[in-house]
Amino acid sequence: MTRWIVPLLVFLATAAGAWHATLAAATFGLMEGAVRRISARAGINTMYYGELATPANQPIVRPSPDLAYSSCPFDLSDGPLLINYTPVAGRYSSLSVFDARTDVVFVRNDVQAGGKPVRIALAREGQKVPAGVETVRVGYDRGIALVRLLLADPSEIAQFEAIRRQSNCATTRG
Fold first, then answer.
1. Residue 71: burial class (beta carbons within 10 Å; 0-12, 13-18, 19+)
2. DSSP secondary-structure letter at 23?
3. Cys-Cys with 147: which of 38, 39, 51, 70 at CB 3.0–4.6 Å?
4. Are the CB atoms for 144 and 38 separated by under 8 Å?
């Protein structure tokens, strides 16, 4: 019986290592697919103002039909990214930043922002950012910044479109 313990332990260690590697690779693969799919619509480091989700048009997995999504797929390899987020008065909205591993690295909603615009610089360690801008350091070059706006009814999208488009993103040289 003891001669089976070592091979069993080796097998279990190998299985655990393979499971961990697969899980890690899957998160990067899922985010890279999302970055490519969204950047194909508007480009990288550019905000895409998505249409409301319908059964025929689901730009993300299981989107909420009462949320208007704007997204900025980013790549920091050419420098930091400035993100401007403008909340809509009286409506829940939020800015969330996800890194290449799908980890949430920043969140700010309309209440936390006090209803005022938010400006952040998204940067890798060592990248210079403009003075006076809240800086969010990330461990990977790629990811997605996502702005969500809650609508009471889908028909409200037209009245909030101009404010929604005040949220944007663009590369900066610091």
1. buried
2. H
3. 70
4. yes
Amino acid of residue 81:
L
DSSP 56: T
Q: Which residues neighbour 98 within 8 Å (Cβ) at sequence distance 6 or greater? A: 31, 104, 105, 143, 144, 145, 146
Helix (H, G, I), strand (E, B) or coil at 145: strand
User: Mapping DSSP to helix (H, G, I), strand (E, B) and coil, where does residue 117 land?
Assistant: coil
Average pLDDT, the chain: 87
Return the amino acid letter for 168.
N
Q: How far apart are CA 6 and CA 133, in angstroms?
A: 56
Token pair in block for residue 102: 């799908």
pTM: 0.83
Residue with tokens 């655990």: 16
Rounded to whole angstroms, how far apart are CA atoms 103 and 137?
A: 13
- Residue 13: phi and psi, rounded to 5, are -65, -40
Structure tokens belonging to residue 19 = 């499971």
Average pLDDT over residues 63-70: 82
Q: What is the pLDDT of residues 95-107, one digit of tens each?
A: 999 999 999 999 9
